[in-house]
Structure formats: C-alpha cells, structure tokens
Design goal:
By secondary structure, the chain is of the alpha/beta class. 63% of the residues lie in helices and 11% in strands. The protein has a six-stranded mixed beta sheet, with helices on both faces. Strands 2-1-4-5 form a four-stranded antiparallel beta sheet, with helices on one face.
Length: 569
C-alpha cells in the first residue's frame, strides 16, 4: 500500500496514478494525491507521529463504523418487529372479518401455519434484506468509486461479469421461491393434522386408532421433510455460489491487472491497493446474494399471507347501513341459498315469524335447518330472494348491529380458555359482577359456579374442558341471557346432554325464551311440541307448516318422524 510504503521509507515521492482518470475521478485522484503528499511530508519529519495518526485514525474509523452499525441495527429491530406485528394484526383482523364459509373450506392448521411459520420466514427475510440494504449500498458505492479512480479499465472488466452473476443467482432464486411455496403449504397440512389429532384425541384413543393417525402424520411430515431439505439445499447454495463467483472474478482481476502492471500501464502499488479494495467488495455482494435468497423464501410466505389478507369478504356491510329494529315480523321471501361450489341448500323458502312467536324447525339431517338460522344472523347472505326484518332487507343492516338483536345457543357450547366470568360476559368488560351473577342464576348455573375452586374467576380450560356438558351449556345460556336478545336461536341446545342435565338446561331455556322471538332447531320432537308453529324442512324446502296437532293430523313427514322417534324411544 502507498501509505505504508511512504511510512517505512521505501519512496520519497508521492505516487501517481499511471492510468488517466476522467470525469468525476479527477477530483478523487487529486484528493488522493494531496493526501499522499501530506502524509509523505509528515512521515519524512515525524515518522512516529505519522504512525500514531495512522493508528488513531484506524481506531476512530472502526469505532464510528461499529457505533453506526449498532444504531442502525437497533433501528432495524424496531422496523422489523413493528412490521411483523402489523402483519399479525392484519391477519387476525382479517380472520375476524371473513365469513363462516371461508373457514369451512380452509384447514385451521394451515391458517395457524400462516400466522406462525410464514410470518417467521418473512421476519427472517426482512432482517437479512434490511441489513443488506442499509449497510451495503454505501460500502459498494465507496469501493466502486475508489476502484474507478484507481483503474477505470479494470473496473469495466469487472462490471461485464455482473449480468452473468445475476443470471446464476436469479435461476437458483426462482427455484427456491417455488419450492418454498410448496414447503409452506406442506407445513400447513402437518399443522392441520396435529391440530385435528389434539381435538379428537379421546376418539382416537377410544377406537385404538393411534397407529393409523401416527402413520398418517408421519407420511405428511416425511413429505414436508423431503421438500424442506430441498429448500434448505438451494438456500445453502447462496454462500458457495457467491464465494465461487467472487474468487473467479478475483482470479480474472489478478490476471488482467498483472498484465497491466507488466505492460507498465499501472503501478504495482496501485494494483495492490486496487486488489485490496476489490476484496472488500466481496462481503457486501455476498450479503446481497444471501438477502436475495432470503427474500425469495420470504416472498413465497408473503404470497400465502396475501392470499389470506386479500380473500374476498362476501358478506359485506352496506355503505349507508340502516338501524335495525324488530317490532312486527321476520320474513323469508322466496329465499334460496347455494354454497360457492354451487351446492344448493335452500329453495323457495317463504316464512313469516311474528314478534314473540316460538318457531320450531324440524326435519331430517341435511334438510337445511341450521343454514336457515345462519342466514338470519348473516353468517351467509341469501343467493336468491330476501330476508326482511320489519320489511327491511337484512343486507341493509350493519352485521354488528343486526347481531346485537340475536342470541345463539348451539349444540356445541363454544367456550374459551378463560375465567367463567369472562366466558359469560364475552367481550363486554363493562358488565358488573352483579349482572353476571343474575344471568347465571337465571340459567341455573350460579350454584355450580360457586362450587368451583375460585368461583366466577375459575379458569375452565381449553373449550371448557374442566366442565361437564350440562355446565357448559348453562354457561352458554347465561351468556345469551346477559345479551338479552330480541331473537333467540336454539340449535339442538339439549341434544348432546344426558337426561338429568337436559332437565336443568331445559329449565334454563324456558327462562331464556320468555317474551322472546325464538327459532328452535330440534331432533327430539318432544321438545318442540308446544311451539306456536312447526316448520318441517326436507331437502332444502318447506314441506309442512302447522302446530303439533295439525301436523299429526296431516300424517305426512312430521307424523313419520314422530312415529320413528316413538318406535326407538
């Protein structure tokens, strides 16, 4: 290096660049020459002082470099984590906004995989890419300017090889992205299988199906492992490819530069300086290469997340929603409904439910009873016709405002891994302890709640696993009572209970149904005999409407269902 050569007395003159610099390079060449001349004079008079300046300068540059790197890394940590948090919140909000139909077609495990594994891949890609984009461009720019100043001719030779390098990296990157997309989908399958196993562990054990499920999971995991190995191998190519290209260009540079030195076109010390500066270019380009491969993996995950985030919300709120009210009747007018796959569920449904009436929906499995009530809550929108509340189409209401009028107690009690109090209040922290207890008393749940270890603050476990079926159902009824809905939907609310629990729950349901418009779905026809109106559905159509006595007298489908139940009683 020229500075060291001057310092140790190998030359008395400031070296000059043999190859002429043009354009912006002239200024840098002049600056470089002035610096060398100043250092030569200092070294000639005070060599130890020059050496001290050189050492201190090295320390200062290193400190400044590391301080700036530390500050930059802290800044990037903030950006990365805030970006990932925003993405997680967007996904969660989207899941809350999407219609029920979406979740019928998607595996829960795959959605969980997108929230966890895909987000993790994007976070890693962001980390590597931000670091490369923040630190390396300036380094590359400074080094490239220095190389142009020292030898524009050699630098031009180097630049000619960049398209070849880009082509090699691009081919591997595209392959990596394709494989990564498949990899994340396979991970979704594995997660779905695991989630399904945890949910059905009782049945798996009861039917001695553990070996079967292990084999199924093992096959899925093996497919994922094979693909993951392939992805990792392609990703691991980034470093060897970058290093091989770097060494190849370095070898070419050595050959070309050496030739220029032998032909006296370039001074040896400048060529050594040029080569040293060029060697500093390899790490930044290698970092860019690694960032590109990481970005390809991240893009595969980002596409899966974008697929979820951009999924259409088919049940949308109107631009100018009306305020819902219920004073007269809920009416179904030529209602038809089909799923997105074209499967028709309901046809020509015409029905009026007056305020205060109790309507029972009965019929064979698959007749469309639950779907009909789902349309009332706008979990789906009708495909044909309309459902009106006091003459206003439900689609003209905001979903949240409409559902404020509706309470649902289903066959499966949906409870959360939280306290009894929070499960009953469900999203309404403003409710007082007294209000919650009053609802629990009306649902005949207060006594068993107090018998728990921590009373209303007792954690009930995932899906309420620490409670019996009857206890869970009474909490669901207490939740509905607390909401005080004008329209109550009971979907097989007692069908999964034993006789003793059913009596307690039925008592609570009677309290809940008082002075309300109720839509009751029941397979046990004995529970709906006293309904104001019984609607019999078959293959998506209404085939009978009337009271219990009227339908018995007709001796049609309802009569047949009654006979079958009495036969098996």
């Amino acid at each position: 290096m020229p500075v060291l050569k001057i310092l140790f007395g190998k030359t008395e003159e400031a070296p000059s660049i043999t190859e002429k610099s043009v354009g912006v390079g002239e200024w840098f060449a002049s600056f470089y020459g002035d610096f060398i001349e100043w250092f030569r004079q200092l070294a000639a008079g005070e060599p130890f002082q020059a050496l001290a300046y050189l050492s201190i300068g090295l320390v200062i540059v290193t400190v400044l470099k590391n301080v700036s790197r530390f500050l930059a890394m802290n800044f990037m940590v903030l950006i990365r984590n805030k970006s990932i948090r925003t993405m997680r919140l967007d996904i969660y909000q989207k899941c809350l906004d999407l219609p029920i139909a979406f979740f019928n077609n998607e595996r829960k495990g795959d959605l969980i995989s997108r929230m966890s594994n895909d987000i993790k891949e994007i976070e890693f890609a962001l980390m590597v890419s931000l670091e490369a984009l923040y630190f390396q461009p300036l380094n590359i720019l400074i080094f490239m300017i220095a190389l142009v100043v020292l030898s524009a001719k050699l630098t031009l030779y180097i630049l000619l090889f960049l398209p070849i390098t880009a082509l090699i990296i691009g081919v591997i990157g595209r392959s990596l992205r394709k494989k990564s997309t498949k990899n994340q989908a396979l991970m979704g399958k594995v997660m779905s299988s695991f989630e399904e196993t945890l949910g059905g562990i009782r049945i798996i054990k009861a039917f001695n199906a553990s070996k079967f499920f292990f084999k199924r999971y093992s096959d899925q995991d093996q497919e994922y492992t094979r693909n993951n190995i392939s992805v990792q191998r392609r990703y691991d190519l980034s470093s060897p490819v970058s290093e091989t290209v770097g060494i190849s260009v370095s070898a070419l540079l050595l050959w070309l530069g050496g030739g220029m030195v032998f032909r006296k076109e370039l001074d040896p010390e400048f060529f050594l300086g040029y080569f040293a500066i060029f060697s500093q270019l390899i790490p930044p380009f290698k970092a860019f290469s690694n960032a590109l491969y990481a970005a390809q993996k991240g893009m595969a995950s980002l596409e899966r997340i974008q697929e979820l985030v951009t999924a259409p919300v088919v049940v949308a709120d109107p631009v100018s929603p009306k305020s819902p009210s219920f004073t007269t009747a809920l009416s179904f007018n030529n209602v038809g409904f089909s799923y997105l796959d074209g499967h028709s569920v309901l046809k020509n449904i015409n029905l009026e439910i007056k305020k205060g009436e109790t309507i029972a929906l009965v019929g064979p499995s698959g007749a469309g009873k639950t779907t009909l009530t789902d349309l009332v809550a706008r979990f789906y929108d009708v495909s044909e016709g309309s459902i009106c509340l006091d003459g206003v189409d439900l689609r003209e209401f905001n979903q949240e405002n409409l559902r404020q009028l509706i309470g649902i107690v289903s066959q499966e009690s949906i409870l959360f891994n939280d306290s009894i109090k929070n499960n009953v209040a469900l999203g309404r922290p403003e409710l007082t302890q007294e209000q919650i207890e009053e609802a629990a008393k009306a649902a005949f749940a207060h006594d068993f709640i107090l018998a728990q270890e921590k009373g209303y603050d007792t954690e009930i476990g995932e899906r309420g696993g620490k409670l019996s079926g009857g206890q869970k159902q009474r909490l669901s009824i207490a939740r509905a009572l607390l909401k005080d809905p004008e329209i109550l939907i009971l979907d097989e609310a007692t069908s999964a209970l034993d006789s003793q629990s059913e009596k307690a729950v039925q008592k609570a349901l009677e309290t809940l149904m008082e002075n309300r418009t109720s839509i009751v779905i029941a397979h046990r026809l004995s529970t709906v005999m006293h309904a104001d109106k019984i609607v019999v559905l078959d293959k998506g159509e209404i085939v009978e409407i009337g009271t219990h006595q009227e339908l018995i007298a007709n001796k049609k489908l309802y009569y047949s269902l009654i006979q079958l139940q009495e036969l098996h009683a």
